[in-house]
Amino acid sequence: MSGDGLLVAVDSKVHRIPAQVKIVALFVFVLAVVSTPAANFWAFALYGALLVAALVVAKLPVPVVSRRLAVETPFIVFALLLPFVATGPTVDVLGLQLSQSGVLGAWNILAKGTLGVIAAILLSATTGPRELLAGLERLRLPSTLVAILSFMVRYLSVVSDDLHRMRIARESRGYVGGRAGHLKAIAGGVGALFVRSFERGERVHLAMQSRGYTGRMPLLGEVGATRAQWMEGLTISLAAVAVAVTARVVGL
Amino acid sequence: MSGPAIHVERLVFAYPDGRQALYGVDFTVERGERVALLGPNGAGKTTLVLHLNGILGSVAGGSGSGRIEIGGTGLHRDHLRVIRRKVGLVFQDPDDQLFMPTVRDDVAFGPANLGLRGAELDDRVREALVQVGMQDHADLAPHHLSYGQRRRVAVATVLAMRPEVLVLDEPSSNLDPASRRELADILTGLDVTLLMITHDLPYALQLCERSLLMDGGRIVADGRTRDLLGDAELMSAHRLELPYGFDPLSVPGPEGR
Amino acid sequence: MRFGRNRIKNVRVHVPDGFFDAPTSIATGLIAAGAVGFSLQRANREIRETGPALAGLTAAFVFAVQMVNFPVGAGTSGHLLGGALAAALVGPWTAVLVMSTVLLVQGLLFADGGLTALGTNITLMGLITVLVGYFITRALLQILPRRTGSVVPAATVGALVSVPVAALAFTGLYTIGGAVDIPIGKLATAMVGWHILVGIGEAVITAAVLGAVVATRPDLVYAARHLQPDLILVDADGNTSTVSPDKPIAARPAGRSLGIGVAITLVVAGGVSLVASAHPDGLEFVGAKLGFESAAKDSAVAGSPLADYGVSGIGNAQVSGALAGIIGVLVTIALGLAIAKVASLRTNKAS
């Protein structure tokens, strides 16, 4: 797992928007989606269109987005089960007795979950880890939390590489995996990984202290976003809010 | 300002897990000296250098005793800031040293803690990166650099604090021959007191006139690098071996410069 | 949370956006924010001493380990949640921060887990697993022999219990804020049943990891710091002396402060979920207040078979059931705390 997250390094209008604007925009958009009753199908179509427009402006390749959608899989399974297990009035579809509320609930989870994931992909694919941290800092996330996040992001690739090397070492000594008997081998390796990670954490702290660290991380020094940038970044989210409000007012 | 660059007296230390690493260490390094710290694995070399800026030891609340002076200033809890600015420590694994999101942030970390801001900070960062030839990589993330580049940036992070004493933990380990030579060129060009842990004996001979040999948590020999490396009995007694075909008496050392 | 027997690699199962209704998301968001704020305050001293790097590295470790699949048996594999393990290793407050950080990075950097569901995910996986795991660990440490090794069985039980409890909490949340009315008894049985299996995996891996850590660096295990033996120091002249080990983090039993934390959680959880259930849809509630109500009523909603979707789903019986579930979880925690407290008082008196 790379320390860059899902970042797609191209230059686009969306990439250039300051991270704090994008985080707020994502949050507002998802909130609008989540608060829309599931039966307002047209609203979800509009949300989808807004997102697709944003993906196009951000120049994101389709495979990146679709591959990442896999995180949703377990919930798709859950959603597909709903029509069969939910109670209440039922409808006949192709000879199957499906619960009406179950069908709607499945749609609800699928539509909102998918839109949420795509919106999140839009953020993570257009924002580098450093920008993201600077954005969270601008949004007044407690500095200790920003510092922990920063170290986590920095060392994600280092720890993952350690893990990867340990797996190679295990497999090159004839380990094939799958058998419960080997659980101990994995777990022992994970234990060693913790000791390594922890000791690295200690050394990093020593390195910080030896360069004068006294408990406060320097600010990442990102300049604030301009009003124009806020307006530009929030365009789609505000449109989504308008859709959500309309859906509420006109009902179905 | 008076007194030697580094003065260590009767230094004892045990780690919290019960391992005792130092059993009474004494030595002195004068200003401008370049000294190699040699010794087998587990001799206590890294533990010793971590004491020099008060990271380990009784100053940091650890279990140990002894006395350390840096440039005449006794190592005391009240002087830690001053000491840490004077002693620049380059860790063995550059990944331990480079913890900020980009090279620029990382080099700026030390001077920012010293109170530098704005243009002054930018100048200091640029100066340090130029010293190690990494000025064109300032905006990269550390994990996008090669190992040799990371080592050089690690040196820059410390140089940016303009230390009086530069302490390096195995600077040539895991470097390819070209990176190893480039680093030697950088280190030779610096005007600081240098203390360098190394297993790379030709490197010690090339860069340091004097060497300390450490084993079992004590200093067991202190002398000219060439003499120590030429003493076959001493070398084998402390698990030190010269590379195949290397004759310490026939190659030029730092004395000639 | 984990459903069914998915064996898809590198898919960590987090609640997505829209899975729970808005009030539930907001309520759990408040709980999570409160818990993180409280933990920041409590962990401040530790973090000042050991540095944020340690917590960050632990978070990177948890993140990396969550990607390791291990066989659970019956052809399925699981992965570590790591809450109980992190609590034993770095203490409950830092562990809450670590788990929240992991979830935040997964949500923002890897688009994994919804942003509006972040509070839910932190509450379930960052808060409940950590607190339950830690309480049980500490409580058992009072009973087990007083040595560092005892932390392994103690935390193993903690890990085992923490996962089904989180699953139960998930079921409770679903009862309150799930979009669809499904038989809660069945859901609870299925969730808890499956998660006992996951919990066994969690327990086995926690035991093995802690075993490995205790074998190499026993001083790193937060939950067992107070059980460390004294050190023997040999000075320059060969004299020996005994000193107590360097304690970078004081290992105080976090009894009372944890109690306060639980009390706050209980009040917040209870209060907010009552509000949430009284007004099943926050926006509708706000809408009614603002006068949109008539507009909504005049629309086609009234005649639709879906008219009371979301309202009929949350009858009073279910609300009380859900509350009972959550309160049950919290009472379990509180009980654990009480046992630990009483046990520690007794130990203190004895010593």
Tag the structure with descriptive keywords.
heterotrimer; A: 252 residues; mainly alpha; 2 domains; two-stranded antiparallel sheet; 10 helices; C: 351 residues; Arp2/3 complex 21 kDa subunit ARPC3; 4 strands; globular; disordered C terminus; ABC transporter ATP-binding protein (chain B); transport (chain B); ATP-binding (chain B); ABC_transporter-like_CS (chain B)
Helical residues, percent of chain B:
25-40%
Under CATH at level 1, the class of one domain in chain B stands as: Alpha Beta
Number of helices of chain B: 10
Radius of gyration of CA atoms of chain B, rounded to a whole number: 18 Å
Order of strands in the sheet with the most strands of chain B? 6-7-8-3-9-10
Number of strands of chain B: 10
Question: Which topology of one domain in chain B does CATH recognise?
Answer: Rossmann fold
Helix percent of chain A reads: 55-70%
Please indicate the percent range of residues of chain A in DSSP E strands (runs of 2 or more): under 5%
Silhouette of chain B = globular
> Distance N terminus to C terminus of chain A?
44 Å
Report the structural category of chain B. alpha/beta
InterPro entries (chain B): AAA+_ATPase, ABC_transporter-like_ATP-bd, ABC_transporter-like_CS, ABC_transpr_CbiO/EcfA_su, ECF_ABC_transporter_ATP-bd, P-loop_NTPase
Keywords (chain B): ATP-binding, Cell membrane, Membrane, Nucleotide-binding, Translocase, Transport
GO cellular component, one term (chain B): ATP-binding cassette (ABC) transporter complex
Family (chain B): Belongs to the ABC transporter superfamily.
Give your account of this protein's structure.
- The complex is a heterotrimer of chains A (252), B (257) and C (351).
- By secondary structure, chain A is mainly α.
- Chain A is 69% helix and 3% strand.
- Chain A has a two-stranded antiparallel ribbon with strand order 1-2.
- The mean pLDDT of chain A is 82.
- Chain B contains 10 helices and 10 strands.
- Chain B has a 6-stranded mixed sheet, with helices on both faces. In chain B, strands 2-1-4-5 form a 4-stranded antiparallel sheet, with helices on one face.
- The longest helix of chain B is centred in the middle third of the chain and has 14 residues, at 118-131.
- Chain B is globular.
- Chain B starts with 5 loop residues before the first strand and ends in a 20-residue tail after the last helix.
- Chain C is mainly α.
- Chain C has one domain: Arp2/3 complex 21 kDa subunit ARPC3, CATH 1.10.1760.20.
- Chain C has helices at 22-50, 52-66, 83-90, 92-109, 118-143, 151-177, 184-216, 255-278, 282-290, 293-298, 316-350; strands at 70-73, 76-78, 231-234, 240-243.
- Chain C has a two-stranded antiparallel ribbon. Chain C has a two-stranded antiparallel ribbon with strand order 3-4.
- In chain C, helix 3 packs across helix 5.
- The radius of gyration of chain C is 22 Å and the shape is globular.
- The model of chain C is unreliable at 1-12, 245-257 and 267-351 (pLDDT under 50).
- At the A-C interface, helix 2, helix 5, helix 6, helix 8 and helix 9 of A face helix 1, helix 2, strand 1, helix 4 and helix 7 of C.
- Chain B: It is found in: Cell membrane.
- Chain B: Pfam families: ABC_tran (PF00005).
- Chain B: Belongs to the ABC transporter superfamily.
- Chain B: Its main location: membrane.
- Chain B: GO terms for molecular function: ATP binding; ATP hydrolysis activity; ATPase-coupled transmembrane transporter activity.
